[in-house]
Amino acid sequence: MDRAHRSARWAIVVFFCSLGMGYGVLTARIPALQEQIRANEGVVGMAVFSLGLGCLAGFAVTPFLQRICLSHTLLRISGLCFLCFLALSGLAWNPVSFCAAFALVGVAFGLAEMAANTQGILLERRLRGNYLSGLHASYSIGGLGGSVLGALSSAAGYAPFLAFCIVSIILFGGWVWAGRRLLVEKTACEKGASEGKSREQGRIPGIVIVCGILALAAFAVEGSCGEWSALLLYTVKGAEESAAALGFGAFSIAIAASRLLGDALRRRWGDFALLAGGSLLALCGQAVVLLAPWPLVCLCGYALTGAGIAPVMPTLLSRAGSRTDISPQRATTAISAMGYSGLLVIPPSIGWLAALFGLRTALLLPVCFTCLLVICSPLFRAAPSASLARKEEPAN
């Protein structure tokens, strides 16, 4: 790896880490925002829903924006908007402004994540290697750091607006440095040209759609662990409230650690073995969570689930981005839009099922999605096409 690509890789890491940190500090200060506007849990739920809708809106407009600007430009602009909206969300004064601010943060977050993933795919194409898992690990690490900063700012008595401004200013310095070192699309295929296949421009290859469905399944598992782990441990397993809060922490730490190793494991084992093995490990972790009566053992189950599900999304994005019949921008947009739809819909659906059948039974839904990942993993036995890599122009 030459110096230019090494700098580009670290620049993309900075963007992923910053997105995770911004999101982490925002979610950590939701209780303070709730108290600031004197809202009930229903308003908070609507704000979180608005955040998810904003992300989907960002995904929806990405194809139009990609026609007028390339991924490095889109990442710089959307990243700046994300920092501005993050700071402004601390000024919410009523439920309407609360939801509106979260929706704007979601739009900017969705656009920035799309562009960051596109940059990661371009890096893999040019270097003919696997890097997306490590990049996604930096997002998870940033999210943990944001949660810690949120807790520290709360302990110091900082208002959400002040805390968000401090984090935004810190991140802005990193983004100025990183924005100058991003990759620039140079070849026709990188820019999404048809290369003599103009009839296919309006079509998304079937395997990319399959990757999107599997991304939905992976996000369904992540969302169920994030939003229902504490309640399951507290109400079903009898854990103390403080211990119940550790469920998502164990899951997140395992995801970060697994994604740090994901690129090396993918190079050694291949996509099929990594997806099948990871999905089976996640399935075992979910079985432990649902069947074990002891909260401590359930925490280990959440860690196993996180370690197993972690490589799925980076592998799906990388596999779709390696194709020659679709641009990395379109592939990223399609997979992420379908994946986040699952994150938006499946966790609330678990709540509706829990009201009818109980939480333990409702959590069989993400188990079914994990089984889908296991069943579909043989589709990735064949190695990704390398024809594109041979057509790439060397970066300056």
How would you describe this structure to a colleague?
- By secondary structure, this protein is mainly alpha-helical.
- It folds into two domains: 3-181, Growth Hormone, Chain: A (Up-down Bundle); 206-380, MFS general substrate transporter like domains (Growth Hormone, Chain: A), CATH 1.20.1250.20.
- It is 79% helix and 0% strand.
- It has helices at residues 3-28, 30-37, 41-65, 71-89, 95-127, 132-155, 160-179, 206-236, 241-244, 246-269, 271-291, 295-309, 312-321, 328-357, 359-362, 364-376, 387-391.
- α13 (312-321) packs antiparallel against α14 (328-357).
- The radius of gyration is 20 Å and the shape is globular.
- The two termini are 12 Å apart.
- Residues 193-200 and 386-396 have low confidence and may be disordered.
Topology of helices and strands:
Elements: H1 3-28, H2 30-37, H3 41-65, H4 71-89, H5 95-127, H6 132-155, H7 160-179, H8 206-236, H9 241-244, H10 246-269, H11 271-291, H12 295-309, H13 312-321, H14 328-357, H15 359-362, H16 364-376, H17 387-391
Helix pairs in contact: 1-4, 1-5, 1-6, 1-7, 3-5, 3-14, 4-5, 4-7, 5-14, 6-10, 8-10, 8-12, 8-13, 8-14, 8-16, 10-11, 10-12, 11-12, 11-16, 13-14
* Radius of gyration, CA atoms, in whole angstroms: 20 Å
CATH topology of the largest domain: Growth Hormone, Chain: A
Major sheet details: none
CATH architectural name of the largest domain: Up-down Bundle
Helix and strand element order: HHHHHHHHHHHHHHHHH
First CA to last CA: what distance? 12 Å
Which whole number gives the mean pLDDT? 81
The general outline is globular
Q: Which stretches of 5+ consecutive residues score pLDDT under 50?
A: 193-200, 386-396
Binned, the helix content reads over 70%
Strand segment count = 0
Write the CATH homologous superfamily of the largest domain. Answer: MFS general substrate transporter like domains
Task: Tell me what portion of residues adopts beta-strand conformation.
Answer: under 5%
Class from helix and strand fractions: mainly alpha
Counting DSSP H or I runs of 4 or more residues, the number of helices is 17
